[in-house]
């Protein structure tokens, strides 16, 4: 038999222990055998390897290769600026690697956070005497003593209990304190046994004696720790897409380099000249600014999300949240206020809201208010100069309710108590009052009603007839249908010479109170927004199914009157296939779940192809938070374990903040596409000069260092501005993007390369030849690299690209919406980027340092005027394309 099925003495014998505790010698032997009562940490990838990983992923390797080729090119052809290019690319690799490591790095502190919940010292019985011992020295068979305020150090079987209640919320997710006693339990599940105390639980009230049967990693606490450590890190869709994009861009750049190498050979270039030419082609097509722009864009999105109470711990989680298709959300504190309140009162044969009770009715039912105020085990304290109550949130709510209707808020002295337990389902407290000794009782109506002989109606006490009994039962059923937690209240005058075994007899019934943890007022609108956005919201809670169903109905989560409710026991009986089929239900709620079960739901949803976001606050939520595509921990009520396991932390514990964060996250994917379209467009005007140089034997219109000026200079801040663009107001009216949708698609490539890129290349080459023609250059005539005519022509080519990119940044703000229907000046970073872009090209063109570094020289105003019609032409052509796209519905 399991230990919770045994009598206390049998439990002790099964552990070869006794009431006097273990001997020190036996305890030392068991400590050697079972190990210390602490959680062990698995070996993980070292910090060094994780740091190195930021510099060895595919795109970083591609940049290392580009830098190596640049240095090799400088060695073969000094003075071409290739060394400057190499050092610039190395700077990109190092800065991006350090920044990404700083953002992504997190020391594995989950075990340390778990340990914080375990007490350092505990009262232990050894060789018949009580002493303080280190929690790590506890062994199976040790007898420990616990009282209110203690944390349970290991899994224990209760031997004696006196009004003992514990809060298992951090372990099992149950919001309400649970009574514990020493009697054998009939339940099969150890974690739900009424005679078991779980490691990490907190003693809310009472005291008890218990024998330890599991320590360290063998506890339920340790099992959760194991799940948390063993759960693999989920790779975000954006991370997968960046890997794919890196490979695609790398293959494209290398293929073009090889192709142009053969074109150069066919055009008669020497081998080394052709090789340097191929390197230039590769470098021109590797968007060196992609990684830092993506990283910085995500970082800026995290700042915006933080302003909306969502703190992102891992950068890719920003976009992952935006692509979420399912949110598995806890109830308490996320959908609700985590603040129990009395919402309904049944008295005078009618169910009323507390706000509707007038002064006459308040004075006619003093027994109800006094019972609610006195029948409790709360502690009073002073916090910030104000009176505060500590203890069971339900009892706090009842006292607050009573204080609204009583002038005297003092609690009468307690003489005796008949404690609450799961069998009795009621609590009775005997108090000394000005009117004599009064017994106050509260509990479930089915246990209080049989003890009552009278009922309080107004200021009168009348016999409790069958008709009145039926009214109370009907009222209870009505309240239960709405998910309220219902308590009945009664009282009785007690003489001094009372018989304690007969206290709870001939009670006077006073009324019923329906309590509820009310939903947050902003949650229904957030739920509706999710439904409009095509995001399924599933409530996954440790609370009772009736409570979960009522809250779900109140916040608009249910479309039908009969949702599919699956409890933890139901889930254990379902196979993985049955679970996946059940998840197809439109309205589904999970209640009374264990730690591994929440993770199982996440895994089932992921097998169905969903991108899953999960909320949680307790230790029991940590495995699911880590397994999910994005784990969301509560910042206020969340444990350290949950926060360490999560990707994002809600600073206000509010579900509505998740929806705001989703809106920001959805913008990220679209914004990345915007700046990709922007930076890829400039690849064509960077590539065409090399193609023209090889095929038509003209002077090279654009040098490699000038390409670098565009990719890592003028384009960087405007591209970042596109990446930081605000969410489109329509983004939450569309379904989540498909997990199969790629970041880089053929429509984007053709639009950037074959449309906008070609228009920019025409402008750049036209400006180059405009300067040459004005200087009287003849085709076939070679120009020295320091020839003033050549320097003016190549400067004109570079400047024309910049002018076109200034227009392009506005064209890329929306893929289909007209520029004239979009707000042009709502993105300050784009405006700053344009100012910096203009400032940088003026520095390059008109300062001695810029001329020396980038191989340029000042150009006349007429060159700038020459490029303007090309910029206006690109604007007209793009507006025409967008108009056709809107009419045909094509991307």
UniProtKB/TrEMBL annotation:
Residues that span the membrane, as ranges: 51-72, 84-102, 248-269, 275-299, 746-770, 790-812, 824-844, 859-877
Source domain of life: Bacteria
A GO cellular component entry from the record: plasma membrane
Domain Cation-transporting P-type ATPase N-terminal: 2-74
Alphabetical list of SUPFAM superfamilies matching this protein: Calcium ATPase, transduction domain A, Calcium ATPase, transmembrane domain M, HAD-like, Metal cation-transporting ATPase, ATP-binding domain N
PROSITE patterns in the record: ATPASE_E1_E2 (PS00154)
Membrane topology of this protein: Multi-pass membrane protein
Main subcellular location of this protein, as a coarse class: membrane
Compartment list: Cell membrane
Keywords from the UniProt entry: ATP-binding, Cell membrane, Membrane, Nucleotide-binding, Translocase, Transmembrane, Transmembrane helix
Keyword Ribonucleoprotein found: no
Molecular function via GO: ATP binding; ATP hydrolysis activity; ATPase-coupled monoatomic cation transmembrane transporter activity; P-type ion transporter activity
InterPro entries referenced in this protein's UniProt entry, alphabetically: ATPase_P-typ_cation-transptr_C (IPR006068), ATPase_P-typ_cation-transptr_N (IPR004014), ATPase_P-typ_cyto_dom_N (IPR023299), ATPase_P-typ_P_site (IPR018303), ATPase_P-typ_TM_dom_sf (IPR023298), ATPase_P-typ_transduc_dom_A_sf (IPR008250), ATPase_P-type_domA (IPR059000), Cation_transp_ATPase_P-type (IPR050510)
GO biological processes: proton transmembrane transport
Family listed: Belongs to the cation transport ATPase (P-type) (TC 3.A.3) family. Type IIA subfamily.
PANTHER family in UniProt: CATION TRANSPORTING ATPASE (PTHR43294:SF21), SODIUM/POTASSIUM-TRANSPORTING ATPASE SUBUNIT ALPHA (PTHR43294)
Full protein name: HAD superfamily P-type ATPase
Natural source organism: Methylocaldum marinum
Taxonomic lineage from the root: Bacteria, Pseudomonadati, Pseudomonadota, Gammaproteobacteria, Methylococcales
């Amino acid at each position: 038999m399991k230990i919770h099925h045994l009598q206390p003495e049998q439990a002790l014998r099964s552990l070869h222990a006794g009431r006097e505790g273990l001997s020190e010698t036996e305890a030392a032997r068991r400590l050697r055998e079972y190990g210390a009562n602490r959680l062990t940490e698995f070996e993980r990838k070292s910090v060094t390897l994780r740091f190195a990983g930021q510099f060895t992923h595919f795109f970083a390797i591609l940049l290392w290769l580009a830098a190596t080729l640049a240095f090799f090119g400088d060695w073969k052809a000094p003075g071409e600026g290739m060394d400057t290019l190499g050092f610039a690319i190395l700077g990109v690799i190092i800065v991006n690697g350090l920044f990404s490591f700083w953002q992504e790095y997190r020391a594995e502190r989950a075990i340390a956070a778990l340990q914080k919940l375990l007490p350092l010292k505990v009262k232990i019985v050894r060789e018949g005497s009580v002493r303080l011992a280190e929690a790590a020295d506890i062994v199976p068979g040790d007898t420990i003593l616990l009282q209110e305020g203690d944390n349970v150090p290991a899994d224990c079987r209760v031997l004696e209990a006196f009004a003992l209640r514990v809060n298992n919320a951090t372990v099992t997710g149950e919001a309400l304190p649970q009574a514990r006693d020493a009697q054998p339990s009939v339940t099969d599940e150890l974690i739900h046994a009424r005679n078991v105390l779980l490691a990490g639980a907190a003693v809310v009230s009472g005291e008890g004696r218990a024998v330890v049967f599991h320590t360290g990693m063998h506890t339920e606490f340790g099992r959760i720790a194991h799940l948390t450590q063993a759960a693999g890190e989920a790779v975000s869709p954006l991370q997968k897409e960046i890997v794919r994009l890196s490979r695609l861009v790398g293959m494209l750049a290398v293929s073009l380099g090889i192709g142009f190498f053969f074109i150069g050979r066919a055009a008669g270039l020497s081998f080394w000249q052709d090789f340097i030419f191929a390197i230039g082609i590769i470098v021109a097509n590797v968007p060196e600014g992609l990684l830092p722009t993506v990283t910085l864009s995500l970082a800026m999105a995290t700042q915006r999300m933080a302003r909306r109470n969502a703190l992102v711990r891992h950068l890719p989680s920003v976009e992952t949240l935006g692509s979420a298709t399912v949110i598995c959300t806890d109830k308490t504190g996320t959908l609700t206020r985590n603040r129990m309140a009395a919402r309904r009162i049944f008295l005078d044969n009618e169910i009323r809201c507390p706000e509707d009770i007038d002064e006459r009715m308040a004075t006619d039912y003093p027994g109800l208010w006094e019972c609610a105020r006195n029948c409790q085990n709360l502690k009073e304290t002073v916090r910030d100069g104000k009176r505060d109550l500590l203890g069971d949130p339900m009892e706090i709510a009842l006292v607050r309710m009573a204080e609204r209707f009583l002038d005297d808020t003092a609690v009468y002295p307690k003489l005796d108590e008949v404690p609450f337990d799961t069998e009795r389902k009621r609590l009775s407290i005997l108090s000394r009052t000005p009117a004599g000794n009064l017994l106050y009782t509260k509990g479930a109506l089915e246990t209080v009603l049989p003890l009552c002989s009278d009922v309080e109606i107004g200021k009168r006490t009348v016999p409790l007839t069958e008709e009145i009994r039926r009214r109370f039962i009907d009222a209870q059923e009505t309240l239960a249908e709405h998910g309220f937690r219902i308590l009945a209240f009664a009282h009785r005058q007690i003489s001094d010479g009372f018989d304690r075994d007969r206290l709870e007899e001939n009670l006077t019934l006073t009324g019923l109170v329906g309590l509820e943890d009310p939903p947050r007022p902003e949650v229904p609108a957030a739920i509706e927004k999710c439904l409009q956005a095509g995001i399924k919201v599933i409530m996954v809670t440790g609370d009772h199914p009736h409570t979960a169903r009522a809250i779900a109905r109140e916040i608009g989560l249910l479309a039908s009157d009969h949702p599919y409710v699956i409890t933890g026991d139901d889930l254990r009986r379902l196979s993985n296939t049955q679970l996946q089929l059940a998840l197809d239900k439109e309205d589904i709620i999970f209640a009374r779940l264990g730690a591994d079960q929440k993770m199982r739901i996440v895994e089932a949803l992921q097998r169905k192809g969903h991108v899953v976001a999960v909320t949680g606050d307790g230790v029991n939520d940590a495995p699911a938070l880590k397994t999910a595509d994005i784990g969301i921990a509560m910042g206020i009520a969340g444990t350290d374990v949950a926060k360490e396991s999560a990707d994002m932390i809600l600073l206000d514990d509010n579900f509505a903040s998740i929806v705001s964060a989703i809106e920001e996250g959805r913008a990220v994917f679209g914004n990345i596409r915007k700046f990709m379209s922007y930076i890829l467009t400039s690849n064509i005007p960077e590539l065409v000069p090399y193609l023209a140089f090889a095929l038509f034997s003209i002077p090279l219109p654009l040098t490699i260092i000038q390409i670098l000026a565009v990719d890592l200079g003028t384009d960087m801040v405007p591209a970042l501005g596109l990446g930081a663009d605000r969410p489109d107001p329509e983004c939450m009216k569309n379904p989540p993007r498909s997990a199969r949708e790629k970041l880089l698609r053929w429509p984007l490539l053709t639009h950037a390369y074959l449309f906008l890129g070609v228009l920019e290349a025409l402008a750049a080459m036209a400006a180059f030849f405009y300067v040459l023609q004005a200087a009287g250059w003849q085709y076939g005539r070679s120009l020295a690299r320091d020839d003033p005519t050549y320097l003016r022509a190549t400067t004109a080519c570079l400047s024309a690209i910049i002018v076109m990119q200034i227009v392009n940044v506005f064209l890329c703000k929306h893929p289909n919406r007209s520029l004239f229907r979009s707000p042009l000046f709502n993105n300050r970073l784009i405006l700053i980027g344009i100012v910096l872009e203009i400032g940088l090209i003026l520095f390059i063109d008109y300062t001695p340092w810029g001329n020396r570094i980038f191989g340029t020289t000042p150009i006349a105003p007429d060159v700038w005027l020459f490029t303007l019609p090309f910029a206006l032409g690109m604007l007209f052509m793009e507006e025409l394309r967008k108009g056709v796209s809107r009419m045909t519905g094509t991307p």
